[in-house]
């Protein structure tokens, strides 16, 4: 987002006319309140007044303008003030094509700036930076939105998973089944509590854990014939990930669990990793409520993100909810009385205040925007047969954390991403190496070829810029360049 503070006393009418004719979604123009009279005739200009810091009476107008521009992070545009942006330099900058942001958090913040700053100022005023009322209010809103009895704010999505595993008593000798195609936090937390991650390959359409392959893994486990489960080890939990914002197939997963429990008499806890899926739906139910235990993340780039780390635990289990609340605060049963070894995993009040400002706009508008942006991408790219576009399964409604497509092969993927980067279009690869092949999990003994679908997908996928404020022009620009790259060189 470009920002300019205009010195109306020293800027030409020609420049003002150029601004008036501009259609710039990524640019903000400000004037200082000290030039209020000069601004009265500029009703057609897309400008607003900058908040004016307090200055000594002796300050010159030039100094006030400089300090104001600095305070709001804007370039001061003036033909007279030394070291200011000249009019020519500003117009040249406006004409230049900026790189497309991968995730435009600055623009989103600009749209909600008043609400966010108002909430932050309240926290700064009351001073309860840990455990403020904003935490409880956010939990209430999330609880009602997801229709679950317990929603517990915590310090990150990773800690949300860790807290659930700790509260469920998962430990050494236990096995937790999960997907190899996700961010490392899912499997990392399993290892952190001393349990063994058991990876099951993915569905080639949704990229979520394959229910069919899960059933096979559980059948082998029930028969005590799974090659990765040693004698004495027991399957205690499954973590299903809602990858890229699309929920996993929970009915099929629960059916697989039911069959295992029926044949063995042993229970398995199902945990939903909804880190990328807050707001998504599966057969009319929202992410966070699709399993008895769930975790989400409010990392800045997530569909609903704050400006730091934060997460949340959801559960239908009152005892687990109590355990999680105790564990996230150093295992305290009351102040300075610790009955458990816990964590410092509290969400701070500033993050909750930001999320409260963003909560309703996200649920009412931004979630729909993400869906519209994804549909526009599909419309623009469906004429190219080189790619496998995202497919949302019937009954699902994705939160569109990413717009991830699949190239024909790794060579084509790498060529496309390199060429897009040259044109100011960033991409990301979610994820380039499956977890079962990561060095940190080498002790599990997996080899290349063990989970072929995850391995193939990891070699082919790449994600295009995605957020809730992308414009049709940006999407068209990205799509046109992508199509041009593919048509120019076939790989």
List the helices and strands and how they pair.
Layout: E1 2-6, H1 13-21, E2 27-31, H2 36-39, E3 47-49, H3 61-72, E4 75-77, H4 87-95, H5 105-111, H6 113-126, H7 133-146, E5 150-154, H8 157-167, E6 174-178, H9 185-192, E7 196-199, H10 211-222, E8 234-241, H11 250-264, E9 269-273, E10 281-282, E11 285-286, E12 293-297, E13 311-315, H12 318-327, E14 332-334, E15 337-338, H13 349-381, E16 396-397, E17 403-406, H14 410-422, H15 452-460, E18 461-464, H16 472-488
Parallel strand pairs: 1-2, 1-4, 2-3, 6-7, 6-8, 8-9, 9-12
Antiparallel strand pairs: 5-13, 10-11, 10-16, 12-13, 14-15, 17-18
Helix pairs in contact: 6-13, 7-13, 8-9, 8-12, 10-11, 13-16
What is the beta-strand fraction?
A: 5-15%
> What is the spatial order of strands in the main beta sheet?
5-13-12-9-8-6-7
Terminus-to-terminus distance: 36 Å
Number of domains: 3
CATH structural architecture of the largest domain: 3-Layer(aba) Sandwich
In the CATH hierarchy, the third-tier topology of the largest domain is known as Aspartate Aminotransferase, domain 2
Query: What is the typical, i.e. mean, pLDDT?
Result: 93
Low-confidence stretches: none
Going by CATH, what is the homologous superfamily of the largest domain? Answer: Type I PLP-dependent aspartate aminotransferase-like (Major domain)
Structural class comes to alpha/beta
Tell how many strands the DSSP assignment holds: 18
CATH first level of the largest domain: which class?
A: Alpha Beta
Rg computed from alpha carbons, rounded to a whole number of angstroms: 26 Å
Helix content: 40-55%
Q: Largest sheet, described in full?
A: 7 strands, mixed
Number of helices: 16
Shape: globular
